[in-house]
Amino acid sequence: MAEAQNLPAGSTTAGSIAVAAESTVATRMSAPPSFDVADFPVPHGREEEWRFTPLERLRGLHDGTAIATGDGVRVDVEAPEGVTVETVGRDDERLGRAGTPVDRVAAQAYSAFEKASVVTVPKETVLTEPVRISVYGQGGTAFGHQLIELGAFAEAVVVIDHTGDAVLAANVDYVLGDGAKLTVVSIQDWDEKAVHVGQHNALVGRDASFKSVVVTFGGDLVRLHPRVTYAATGGEAELFGLYFTEKGQHQEHRLLVDHNTPHCKSNVAYKGALQGDNAHAVWIGDVLIQAAAEGTDTYEMNRNLVLTDGARVDSVPNLEIETGEIAGAGHASATGRFDDEQLFYLMARGIPETEARRLVVRGFFAELVQQIGLPDVEERLMAKIEAELEASV
């Protein structure tokens, strides 16, 4: 598997694989963050943040022509005792604190949602069972907003499960109090025609720990924008992700970790597998270490496994450092096909080629799946990976 680490701007590999590293993270957006959709021009595909996205497949989410319908999505929340679950209006002052929309679709979602779901875990509450949020697409168009808030020293695991068929633009906010620990598993298991565009904002308190696991399988087009900022020193963030991109699918993950506070940590690891004609995966990993963020320790990695001809990967790690007083910083991107030595090793021991390929892919994803920590979810995802591989045989 060919690896590119700390490449100069614009570096690429041949064929269907593109890898690049750039600086000037702050200049990658065509407009400053804003809650007002009017502050963002309608994208045309030439903008840096939209150049990989097939705008014609967004169903009008980017240009204002998408209209919410009554049969958009249904949201159900199953929460353990002690957790507060609310449906609130747009004027609730808690909404929007974790981050500001950074593109026109996120601003459109914030401007258009009518009700938001708010899940609150009180301070010092340690949940022994996960909060499960089901977002089920019912065939229409919807705009949504969710807030997950943990009080000081609270601990929780939240699973957000997207299924069905919908055109959805939604923002999710995670607010962690001091010393809180939150693990979020966001699963995109949409039907084949679904479109999902979302911005995930995490605000990490003093000595708090945030772990995000993003899993993307289904949908015609999925474009997610996880973002992390720190409210005080000592915060830690881990962003894990896995995606399996099939024929004709477009799956795009654009991350930003904004180290704006001293002595915080972050670790990013995303892995993807692709198969089929016009399967297209995009991974943009931006890490910004501001001048005030002395003592930062950060690393980001993206690896992709191309299973068939006709698939394309664009992998762009970006690291911008404004201070020399850091503990460590680095990034890596690797994209390639099956390792012939691995296959030969397995086949030499009597394992058929088809089964050997399955074992390689399972091993490729297993480390990230184990980060979830929920056996039922892990088993479901590994079964989904098996089903995807079975379909390719």
Automatic annotation (TrEMBL):
Record-stated family? Belongs to the iron-sulfur cluster assembly SufBD family.
The record's section on NCBIfam families has: sufD (TIGR01981)
Note the Pfam families from the entry.
SUFBD_core
Would you kindly state one Gene Ontology biological process term found in this protein's UniProt entry?
Answer: iron-sulfur cluster assembly
What is the name attached to this protein's record?
Fe-S cluster assembly protein SufD
Q: What sequence ranges are listed for the domain SUF system FeS cluster assembly SufBD core? A: 138-364
InterPro entries of this UniProt entry?
A: Fe-S_cluster_assembly_SufBD, SUF_FeS_clus_asmbl_SufBD_core, SUF_FeS_clus_asmbl_SufBD_sf, SUF_FeS_clus_asmbl_SufD
Q: Which gene encodes it?
A: sufD
